[in-house]
Design brief:
This protein is mainly alpha-helical. It has 4 helices and 2 strands; from the N terminus they run αβαααβ. Belongs to the UPF0223 family.
Length: 88
Amino acid sequence: MNYQYPIDETWSKEEIIDVVNFFSLMEKAYESKVNRRNVLTLYRRLKEIIPSKSEEKRVFAEFEKESGYSSYKVVKKARETSEEVFSM
């Protein structure tokens, strides 16, 4: 990993940890397999930290530009799949 996660300096330490955990799980979805419930749980927590849809899109776009991984596609698949464990 030669990139940085999109982090806002105004977030608390706990919020930063939760956002890093979310993006780490996004990477894992592309590199191996993830649990559907974990993706949805961490996404709900991310929405508490970033309630604005436009801000979420900006952060997701920044992460995708840096990593090549689409958080949007992972969350979408987690919502739509009936599989408990999946990969991208």
